[in-house]
Automatic annotation (TrEMBL):
Top-level lineage group: Bacteria
Keyword line: Membrane, Transmembrane, Transmembrane helix
Biological classification of the source: Bacteria, Bacillati, Actinomycetota, Actinomycetes, Streptosporangiales
Record protein name field: Uncharacterized protein
Region (Disordered): 1-25
Keyword Nucleus included in the entry's annotation: no
Compositionally biased intervals (Basic and acidic residues): 1-18
Amino acid sequence: MKTDRGREDDAREGDGRNDPPAGRVRRVKDAPRNQEWLLTLLPAFPLVLLVMRLWYASRQDTQTLLLLVQTISPLGLLSAVLLTTVWVLPALVLGGRLLGTLHWLSTGRSSWLVRAAERLPGWVVVLSVVVGLCTWQLRFLPTLAMMSLAVAGLTVRDRYPGHEGLRAVVCYALPVAVAVLSYVLLWPAVVAAFTARDVATAILLTLPPGLGVLLTGPVPGASAGVLTHGIAIGMSVITPFLVGVVVMKAPILPLIALQIEEREAQEVVVGYLVASDDQMSTVLGREGAVRFISNDRIRSRVLCPDPGEVPRTWVNLHGWYVEQSVLSWLAPTAQPEPVDQRCQGRAVDDPVSG
């Protein structure tokens, strides 16, 4: 009976038609085992984000933190975290598959990055592309197309090394066609970005389609290990901090303005509504102070817009702004209304209860 080493040598000497490639055997053989404990860490990261978000909202005050934990629904917090971080998953899946396959084709050696790429099923990669297409902003869609084409080209090179026609179509013809089509469709937005001197948006719209043609093949083996593992480690380190910063700024409570009577004077309290019942309304001010206001003193209340929704650039493609995703562009939106004076801290003479 042949040992594993002997079977690996036979696979290396085969003609490639019936026997599995040597790399495929080596990658399966080198795969680590008994790492199911890593799955227990998956719920920990969202939980830490939820606690840190409440700690940030309470301005590091323990009593305010306990009040928020008691009154805020965990489902609402989890929804805010999921909606904020859903755009990260396609980047991690496509990036891991791209870097792992690129390392294997360039060096022929296995590593933790190659094993991670092998454990990503094809349907997960396709689903990640669909999620990214729906949730990523317009200015990031060329990057999504670049990564998707690179993954497709490298996968064809890895799994079908003898199909020259298929490799020519997927690795060369398709990226060129997508690049030309992208420049034609995005040309109005590219011109608007350069006109508005929005350098970041202009680079995101012009650079990825051209790079997609260059990322469907291996790189020199001497630099492949440092390049792929360096990018992967950088993504692993930066992504949690980036997600944390975004979640820290995500709204978890409705922003309202209450106009109240204060000794024959009118005062407007702008803050986040923590709780409200028949007698009292609890409001968390922007500075972190909690106020308990009797409902008898409230003359009116109004829901204020989220300050974080103000666009940073007005570059658009036929009304589709570069900071909008496909879902937000296609979904019906309310007509914009003038900002109420009470949301700016100014009282009105004849308030209408909202």
